[in-house]
Amino acid sequence: MPQHTSEIEQFLTYLRFASISADAKMQPQVIDCGRWLRDKLTAIGLEAELAQTKGNPIVLARNQKKPGRPTVLIYGHYDVQPVDPLNLWRTPPFEPSIANGIVTARGASDNKGQTLSHIFGVEETLKREGDLPVNLIFLIEGEEEVGSQSLTDFLQSRRKELECDVVVISDSPMIAPGVPTLCYGLRGIQAIEITLHGPKQDLHSGMFGGAVLNPLTALVRLLSTLHRPDLSVAVDGFYDSVRPLQKWEHDGWKKLPYQEKDVKAITGVPALAGESGHTALERLWARPTAEINGLWGGYQGEGSKTVIPSTAHAKLSFRLVPDQEPEEIVKLVENHLRANLPESIQMEIEVGHGGAAYLTDPHDPWGKAAQNALRKAFDGKEPALIREGGSIPIVSDFKRILGADTLLLGLCLSDCNAHSPNETFPLENIELGKKLNRELLRELAAQAK
Ligand code: BES
Ligand code: ZN
Predict the structure, then answer these.
(1) Closest CA to 94 of 7, 172, 3, 32
(2) What is the atom index within ligand 1 of the atom nearest the CA of 393?
(3) Could you tell me the pTM of the whole model?
(4) Mutate to test the pocket of ligand 1, among 80, 141, 145, 184 (most ligand atoms within 8 A of CB)
(5) N or C: the chain end with fewer CB closer than 10 Å?
């Protein structure tokens, strides 16, 4: 990579890779993106490799390990979400455009801009000071958006080499522009795909409708049993292991600069909805949910076709909170669906990716060091302590396999359109991220002394 290429140019190059992990056709782009990243990390003076896995390669880079300083692992992902619906993008998703200091492209916030800011931060410190205050590992994967399955095996097989004191991630939002944000909890997730089989082939709906149950009708009826009228989840035992919110969280969240009106403004809905008895933030961050992510079957083409389809399909996912276990949730959901399945329908269940929720104490020594760094990077402002509703499944594996807690420091904004058309990242947050990286590595080194 030429030395003179500006940071913005490098960011745009990184964004041009269509590194969509969900789409097997895009794998060459995913791999090229991983290579670019490895070369970038090599160019800033780290020992970098592109480690092969059964799936997408993992980029690993480190400085020289020296005794007497803590090891910090900075995690990120270079894969991105699919881009559809493409027609709703104002500019093509992999041709980044800049307007009013904001870059628009798929992956801008999730997670390329956030990770690259840390890389630029490390690059700057290495240039200025010749060394970092910590032993540093960059671990940047290409399968986060599809459940990080290769990374779990990688952590097991390279456990010794990846030993670290603490993990740092910027893959969650800042609670409001300019507000330093430490996220100390994430929801977990369990994905499930179901297929309902009815007649052995598609049927004429006039000749057989009324005598043979339509699998799509069976599917919508079945899915409607997942929620009670108040939108709580109706699966038996679903809430049994949900850990209650602590009082300091309940009180603290009410004062955050992100409340129901902000959720309404970002999403464009006239009213919020969800389980009764909890505020919107509680429902987003500390309560589990059942979601239908996709539903299909039957005729989808132009005009009409009078058919009873032979199959019907749904993609479901369940957001989980401490102490729900993904495997246990699969069992409970399967029992629920089987108990509500009509006699004439067969059900196939495909269990998808899963990961437990994550919760740590933002007031422990690493959390305090992170808060100090946030204060310094944001001109003395007090950090907001939040949880988030999204999932980074590997975080619970960092704890389980490497024994390390994770600090989640947000650098993107809540209205960044992650997973949606027109994803954005404010360019000024690159500078902010560099500053945060510098302060954080210093604070973590000081904390370990
Ligand atoms: N950056 C998100 C995770 C996130 C989102 C954290 C919002 C905090 C707030 C990440 O890239 C993501 O989208 N994760 C997926 C994981 C899933 C596909 C296994 C998610 O949450 O849907
Ligand atoms: Zn994402």
Answers:
(1) 32
(2) 19
(3) 0.94
(4) 145
(5) C
